[in-house]
Amino acid sequence: MKSYVFPGNIEDSILQIGGKPFPYMRTAQFSELVKDSERMLLDLINCPEGRVIFYTASGTGAMDAVVTNYVSQCEKAFILVGGSFGHRWKNLCDYYHCPNEIFEVPFARDIDYAQLEERVRTSRPDVFLCQHHETSTGQLYDMEKISAICKKYEVSLVVDAISSFLSDTLDMSGWGIDICITSSQKGLNIAPGLSFLFLSPRVLQKVFSHKSYYFDFEENLKNLERGQTPYSPATTLFLQLHARLQSDMKIGVDNIIASVRAKALYFRELCKQNNWEVPAEVPSNCITGFFVRKNGDILFKELLKQEIFIMPGGTPNYFRVSHLGVQTNEDLDDLARRKPINLYSYERKES
Ligand SMILES: *Cc1c(COP(=O)(O)O)cnc(C)c1O
Question: Burial of 321 by CB count in 10 Å (0-12 exposed, 13-18 middle, 19+ buried)?
Answer without folding.
Answer: buried
